[in-house]
Every structure is written in structure tokens, then in C-alpha cells.
């Protein structure tokens, strides 16, 4: 049965109102979600203490496999797409985010379509998450301006298991209710036991967007078990900027998926006639076709053509990038690359390796700068790019003014001996991942922007398995250095290209981070680090 038909199933349904905590966390929207804001919000999040049974080490709500399409069979043509970011805010502290495609309270045509986004923090010991419900307006279809979200309500999602959940919601306009949810397609990896090939395919699921039109984008589910790829496209009318909520538009897409495929052709659908959280009859019509092609774990393109509906005749290609961290299981093609070895530089301060206080996620120590979440995924190139758990990663970099902690006579004559800011050590989790909360590094004469790191596969004593460096896209770096926090030093004029840099002049193909965000919201940078496992 197709995704479109599944979302059209109708049964009797009576919503049961339930009070939802009225907390507001000013998190951000699809296509401009601030990892830094999520991290700040996590400090005020109440952690529920329920789990899904004694045999599970971690609650199902912290499993990436919960991501994908969910719906209530009783309400026609509406549902949600979820994504779970395990350990994004630190060990055992993740994020659940999603997009909700629905309708106005009064039935109508495309102008009655409504969509919301939501997100909130969750921990490994909880089966529920408190969410902020957000709304974006003021955008145009596949065009600027960038839009920003407004908090319009709160919700709580509770997972019973990998295939059933409940969403309680309360909107500021008075709407409230309870929606029983179930998966649209069969479970992928949530219940465990999935093969590495299934995990690698499923890892392309998640939120994808074009930074140039931030505030709109896709929520994708790649489901190799069902042999399907589906997504929700959350966007606007062509002239939606001045239309308020009536300018919101959403589409769903579905097509067959072949194992290992990185390009899929899908049918695009538009659904109208429904009413918010109600069992009204809807009309779902095929309005076009799309081709979704992944060019890496972080980049993709969406080529679209509309043959019917209000966008008839429109066609184009959208350059997409992943929002947030790439799952450690993600690999493009059938291989991953060995990370190049690089110099540790003049400021490694290796004495901190024995300091357990440096085993931390947040390494800022009060240093000002544009927030940066650094996600490193450690994989074994000799074992099918499988994640490497329980390895140590030590990361360090300079502050916004080009100064490293622990050394004297640096940029500007600064003496930072006895300090350990912007240095941290973490052990990789079961997904081979570590997450550092830091700031975007500045620059010093003779080097282009970078972050140092070392990998220790067993203990922190002895020699590192590999020493390398993270590179950053020049466009991102230039945007950061043009911001007010970095204005005192401005752009790096000493090294203006990777070809001029004494480390990256031989290429950055395996060291270039995938970066999403903005100077105002902060950035998330992801890099897959391939090593030869023990």
C-alpha cells in the first residue's frame, strides 16, 4: 500500500484532551535548527525517568531508528516525520525533532494546508520528550527570504515501543488533544538487529534543506526494509511571503527504494480538504515527480517537476545539505576513507591527556564566539565502515582571537599558560560518535581555520592512532569572521586558500567538515573519521 493511501485511511476517532506542560523553549525551525540553542535549552529540560523494559540499556526514544513517518489511521491525510539525534547534546542526552503536516481548522484548498515543526531534548532513560511547537511563515516556494520560527504551542511525545506512540498537544490558540500514532512503514533499526547494509541505507534519513532558503526543507525516510523512500516537503506558495499561514504548503513523495541506491525517482502528491486532527475526507492527487540523489552523507540534490496543481509548470533543482550530524552508520558507496595524518602543531598540550577533568563535552570555558557543535564519527575502514566504540578522541583549537590555551607568547603576546580552554577528551559511544560543544575557531598568521584532534583506540597512554585536523568551508569561515564577535580580527589575510595552507595544500577531501547553521544561530560541523581498527 502506498504512503499516500496509508495517510488517507479513515476510522472513527475521538480526540481525548490532556493537559500538556506549558513550557516554552525557543528552539528553532526546520532548516535553521540551532544545535547551540538546543544545547542551552537542555539545561532547563525535565528528564522523565521511564524506560521501555528492563532488557533495554537505553530508552527507545534515544534510538535513531525511531525516525521516519508516523500517522494516526483515523485522521485523513496528515501525520508527522520524526528524527532522533542521539547524544547530540552530550552523553545520554539527545534531541527529538520533527515536522507535522496537517490542515487548518476549516477545510479548504491548498491555502488551508498547515505545517509545524517541533523539537526538544531527551535522555537515554526516558520514553517521552517535551516539545516546543513552532511555526514559520513569510516564505516563498524554493526562494528567499530565509524565515524564522515562532513558538505556537507545546507538546509531549510518548513512545510505547518502536511502532506506536502518543502525541499530546496544546496550542496557544486553545487547541489541545491527544493523537495516537503508529509507523507508516515497518521498523528499520529501532528494535535492533538490523544488518550494516540496512543501517547504512537508513542513515540517509533525516532533515535536509538548502541554507539559502532556510526555513523550508525535507524530512526523509529511507526504508530498505519496506523497499520505499518517502519524504515530507515543507515549503510555501510561490507568493507566500505576504500570505501568513495561508502561504504554507506541504507535499509528500513516495517511490521504490533499491538496496544501496543513492538516487531514487518519486511521485509527488498534494493533499487538500482535510481539517486539523479530524477524520474528514481528503483528496490526494499526484502533482509531479522528483528525483532525490545523495552525493554524500551530507549533501544531496532534489530535482522536481510539477505537472498538476497550483505549481503546474514549475521545475528546478535544489541543492540540499543535511541538518545536523550524519549518523555514524552512514557511508557513501561501499567504502570509507582513511583520514590523512597531519602535524599536531605547536600547541598540543599532551599533558592534559592524564587530566580526567578534561573528559568533557563542553570545552568552551566561557570563551565567546559563534557556537559550534563538533560531531566526529569514528569508523573502521577495515570493517565495512562500522562504528568504533570506546575509543578516545582528544580535540583542541584556538579561540576567536587565535590563542591556544596552555602556552605563552602567542598571537598578540597573550600568555595562556595554566589554562585549558577549548580542549576536551571524550570516549566514542556505541555509534562511534563524540560531540563537542565549543566555538568557531579563529585564525592566526600562517594557518587557515582548523581544529586539531587525535584518536586513541585503546588507552590515552602511548602514541595516538592518528593525529589529524578538521577543515571548514571557506564560505562559512568568511561569514563567521564578518560577524560582530570576530570583527576585531576580521578576515584571515595571511592564508586565503587551502592551496596556500601548509597542512591542507594537498587536499581536504577527507577532512572537510559538513557544516550547517548561521553566525547568529550557531553551527553544527560533522566529520567522518576513518581509521584502521585494532
For the structure shown, list the relevant keywords.
globular; mainly beta; eight-stranded antiparallel β-barrel; eight-stranded antiparallel barrel; Protocatechuate 3,4-Dioxygenase, subunit A; about 5% helix; about 525 residues; 2 domains; disordered N terminus
Count of individual beta strands: 25
Task: Describe the main β-sheet briefly.
Answer: 8 strands, antiparallel, barrel
SS-based structural class? mainly beta
Strand content: 35-45%
What share of the residues lie within helices? under 10%
Alpha-carbon distance between the termini? 46 Å
What is the chain-wise order of helices and strands? HHEEEEEEEEHEEEEEEEEEEEEEEEHEE
Question: Which helices and strands, and how do they pair?
Answer:
Elements: H1 3-8, H2 35-42, E1 68-71, E2 79-90, E3 93-103, E4 113-123, E5 128-136, E6 149-159, E7 164-171, E8 176-183, H3 196-202, E9 206-209, E10 217-223, E11 228-236, E12 248-256, E13 263-272, E14 283-294, E15 299-306, E16 315-322, E17 371-380, E18 386-387, E19 392-396, E20 423-427, E21 433-439, E22 450-456, E23 466-471, H4 474-481, E24 514-518, E25 522-531
Parallel strand pairs: 17-25
Antiparallel strand pairs: 1-2, 1-8, 2-3, 3-4, 4-5, 5-6, 6-7, 7-8, 9-10, 9-16, 10-11, 11-12, 12-13, 13-14, 14-15, 15-16, 17-18, 17-21, 19-20, 19-22, 22-23, 24-25
Characterization of this structure:
- With 534 residues, the protein is mainly beta.
- It has two domains: 320 residues, no CATH class; 182 residues, Protocatechuate 3,4-Dioxygenase, subunit A (Sandwich), CATH 2.60.130.10.
- It is built from four helices and 25 strands.
- The strands form four sheets. The chain has an eight-stranded antiparallel β-barrel with strand order 1-2-3-4-5-6-7-8.
- A hairpin with a 4-residue loop joins strand 7 and strand 8.
- The radius of gyration is 23 Å and the shape is globular.
- The N terminus is likely disordered.
Amino acid at each position: 500500500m502506498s504512503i499516500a493511501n496509508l495517510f488517507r485511511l479513515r476510522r472513527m476517532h475521538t480526540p481525548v484532551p490532556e493537559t500538556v506542560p506549558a513550557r516554552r523553549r525557543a528552539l528553532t525551525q526546520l532548516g535553521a535548527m540551532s544545535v547551540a540553542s538546543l544545547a542551552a535549552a537542555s539545561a532547563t529540560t525535565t528528564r522523565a525517568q521511564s524506560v521501555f523494559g528492563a532488557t533495554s540499556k537505553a530508552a527507545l526514544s534515544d534510538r535513531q531508528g525511531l525516525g521516519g513517518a508516523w500517522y494516526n489511521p483515523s485522521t485523513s491525510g496528515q501525520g508527522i516525520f520524526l528524527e532522533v539525534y542521539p547524544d547530540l547534546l552530550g552523553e545520554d542526552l539527545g534531541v527529538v525533532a520533527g515536522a507535522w503536516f496537517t490542515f487548518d481548522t476549516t477545510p479548504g484548498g491548498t491555502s488551508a494546508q498547515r505545517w509545524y515543526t517541533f523539537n526538544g531534548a531527551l535522555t537515554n532513560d526516558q520514553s517521552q520528550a517535551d516539545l516546543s511547537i513552532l511555526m514559520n511563515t513569510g516564505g516563498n516556494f524554493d526562494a528567499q527570504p530565509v524565515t524564522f520560527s515562532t513558538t505556537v504551542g507545546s507538546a509531549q511525545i510518548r513512545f510505547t515501543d518502536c511502532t506506536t506512540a502518543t502525541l499530546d498537544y496544546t496550542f496557544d490558540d486553545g487547541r489541545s488533544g491527544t493523537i495516537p500514532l503508529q509507523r507508516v512503514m515497518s521498523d528499520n533499526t529501532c528494535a535492533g538487529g538490523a544488518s550494516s547494509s540496512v543501517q547504512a541505507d537508513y542513515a540517509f534519513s533525516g532533515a535536509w534543506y538548502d541554507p539559502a532558503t532556510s526555513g523550508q526543507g525535507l524530512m526523509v525516510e529511507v526504508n530498505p526494509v519496506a523497499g520505499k523512500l518517502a519524504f515530507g516537503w515543507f515549503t510555501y506558495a510561490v507568493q507566500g511571503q505576504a500570505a501568513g499561514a495561508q502561504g504554507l504548503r506541504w507535499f509528500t513523495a513516495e517511490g521504490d527504494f533499491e538496496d544501496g541506491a543513492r538516487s531514487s525517482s518519486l511521485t509527488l502528491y498534494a493533499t487538500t480538504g482535510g481539517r486539523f486532527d479530524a477524520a474528514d475526507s481528503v483528496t490526494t492527487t499526484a502533482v509531479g515527480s522528483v528525483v532525490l540523489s545523495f552525493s554524500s552523507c551530507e549533501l544531496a540534490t532534489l530535482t522536481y517537476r510539477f505537472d498538476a496543481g497550483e505549481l503546474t509548470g514549475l521545475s528546478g533543482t535544489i541543492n540540499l545539505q543535511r541538518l545536523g550530524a550524519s549518523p555514524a552508520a552512514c557511508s557513501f558507496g561501499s567504502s570509507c576513507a582513511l583520514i590523512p595524518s597531519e602535524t599536531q602543531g605547536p600547541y598540543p598540550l599532551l599533558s592534559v591527556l592524564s587530566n580526567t577533568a578534561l573528559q568533557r563535552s563542553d570545552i568552551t570555558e566561557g570563551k565567546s564566539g559563534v557556537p559550534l557543535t563538533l560531531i566526529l564519527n569514528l569508523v573502521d575502514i577495515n570493517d565495512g565502515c562500522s562504528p568504533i566504540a570506546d575509543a578516545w578522541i582528544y580535540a583542541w583549537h584556538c579561540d576567536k582571537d587565535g590563542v591556544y590555551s596552555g602556552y605563552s607568547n602567542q598571537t598578540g603576546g597573550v600568555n595562556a599558560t595554566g589554562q585549558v580552554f577549548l580542549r576536551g577528551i571524550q570516549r566514542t559511544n556505541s555509534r562511534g560518535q563524540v560531540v563537542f560543544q565549543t566555538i568557531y575557531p579563529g585564525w592566526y598568521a600562517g594557518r587557515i581555520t582548523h581544529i586539531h584532534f587525535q584518536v586513541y583506540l585503546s588507552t590515552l597512554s602511548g602514541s595516538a592512532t592518528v593525529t589529524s585536523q578538521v577543515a571548514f568551508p571557506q564560505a562559512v569561515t568568511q561569514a563567521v569572521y564578518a560577524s560582530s564577535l570576530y570583527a576585531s580580527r576580521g578576515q584571515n589575510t595571511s592564508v586565503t586558500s587551502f592551496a596556500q595552507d601548509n597542512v591542507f595544500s594537498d587536499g581536504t577531501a577527507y577532512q572537510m567538515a559538513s557544516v550547517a547553521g548561521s553566525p547568529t544561530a550557531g553551527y553544527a560541523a560533522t566529520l567522518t573519521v576513518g581509521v584502521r581498527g585494532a
